[in-house]
Every structure is written in structure tokens, then in C-alpha cells.
Amino acid sequence: MVERNWLVLTDGWLMSRNAKTAHGVLRYGRDPIAAVLDTEHQGHDLSSVMPSLERAAPIVGSVSEGIDAGATSLLLGVATPGGWIPDHWRPLLKEALEASMEIANGLHGFLGDDPELVELAERHGGRLWDVRKPPDGIPLNSGLALQVPQRIVGTVGSDCAVGKMTVSLELTEVARAKGWSPEFIATGQTGILIAGKGIAVDRVISDFVSGAAEQLVVDADERSDILLVEGQGGLWHPAYSGVTLGLLHGSAPEVLVLVHRAGREAIEEPPYTKLPPLDHVVRTYEDIASWVRPCKVACVALNCGGMSAEEASSHIQAAEELTGLPAGDVWRGDAEKLWAAVEEALSR
Fold it and tell me: Does pTM surpass 0.85?
């Protein structure tokens, strides 16, 4: 396992949703954070600029300042338009490699395909980690996930970007506190950066997505007793429904947690597909997952971001009445309530 001390590049996007990779690593990452590189907020501390991340770190304006703060690895923490590496980042990447740093990249454009950066890394002893690049030899699905000794819990969503990774991580923390030996199974670039391993299933050839999910479950730490599989996409999003289905069938969960953005009635992006009522979403996920193994949704994790306490409470109550399941918002302290529902579902 590579030891890292992160310099997190947010490049003026620190407060934006585009920096969700940075936000995830800053909030949940196990490795230390030396500094954040963001010229817009340089000179401040992360704890005062974004207290919700619950992390203190100096915000600097250059790679050299990050190195002086102890950084060994540069994280490209922004999801740029189109997922490609901007030309104005190149001087920063070159400076990092010339200082023998590792660069972790979760974008669609791979650093390893850039001859100049590869040569710099080789010459100075740096390392290029393209997080989204799938490993070689991913097998076709063969049902091996049905044979693992661990219990398997998956998060699924009504849409993309509703908080499936965050819910998975919050439930992992509660499970550990309750005496389980959980393992978070990362299936996206930010989750991989947090866990230190995983497969970004959105870069896997379609026939092998369920095989990749199966491999992640089969290769889990043998000391774990429960696996929390990070969901991707959503069945009602036509661009990503395929990866959702492959991940669901390949990981073969026994229990699901449905994640939903409170108040959302259609997917957030074109073609703005209308979402069915939550009870229909629950039944659909249960039916489709049960093609491989009997599976039930244990609870509904609502994302009530930006709402008042009264509004959030109203949405939670409505979700419980409609689905007949416990509901709550992990961002508002309901992770223990939702985990209790998962434990109850596992005991049936």
C-alpha cells in the first residue's frame, strides 16, 4: 500500500460541485492531507472555508508550497467538463513529477497516455495513477459472489449524484462502531481514492461490468464480515442504467439501501426522465436484484441538502409512509437509524 500525504488540487473550484472528488477525499479519506491547492482561497484554512468537510488543512497557491507542507501525492480533485485534463494544469503536473511526486487522476483522460508526463515520471521517480483505468483480466460474471462468506449490502439510487458513495461510507462507519468488520467496496473514482483500491465500473466494457462487480466482492478482505458496495448511476437514467444493472447483478446483494434526492421528480440531466413514486422504485430494485438472489430494500436514505429541518422532516415522514420503510438523512445524523434497518433486514 502506497503511503500518501495529499496535495488536493481544486483550481478555483473548491466550493463547486465539480470538486466532488476533492470533497470526498477530504471528508472521508484515510490518508493525511498536507494542503489544498486553490489560488482563490490561498492563505486560509480548509476548516474555515468548508467546515462541512470536517478537515483542517492549509490552502496554498502553488505545488512548491504544498511540498513544503509535506505533500507526497498530488490529487486532481476536480471533475472538469468532458473529463479531460486542462492544458493550464500541465505546468503543475510537470512540477509535481519533477519533485518525484505521485499524481492521482480520476478523470477520463489518462496521464499514462501522455508521453511527456510518462517520461518525466520515469526520469524523476514519480508515479502516475490513473484511477479510472480498469485492471487487466476482468472475467465474465460466473455467480461467484453468491459463494462469498460475507453479507452483502448495496446502495442504489433513483438518479445519479444523489449521495450513494456518502451513504455507503457513513453506513460503513456505523457498522464498524457497532462491532461489525465492514469493508467499503469502491466502484467509482472517488471511492477508489478513499479506499485505496477498487474498480471504476464506468470504464469497464459493458459485457464485463457484472464480472468486475463480482471480482470486487470475491477479492474483498477475508477478515471482513459485511461488504457495502458503492452504487453507480440509476435505473431511470438512460445513460447509466446499464452500469447500474451490471453492478447490481454482479455484486449480488442481499439487502439494498435506496438513496434519493428529496423532492426530485425527474432525473437531473437530459432527457429528464420522470421518476416513479418511491414505492415503485423500491419494488423495481427488489424485483431486478432478485433475479440473481432474493433481495429487499431495507431503508430509504434521503438527501435533504439545502432544506430546513422542517422540510427535511416532512420529506422523511412522507417517504416512510409511502414505502413502509425507515427513512432518514445521513447528512443530518440518521446513519444509525438506517443501519439498524439494514441489520434487521439481514437478520430476516
Answer: yes
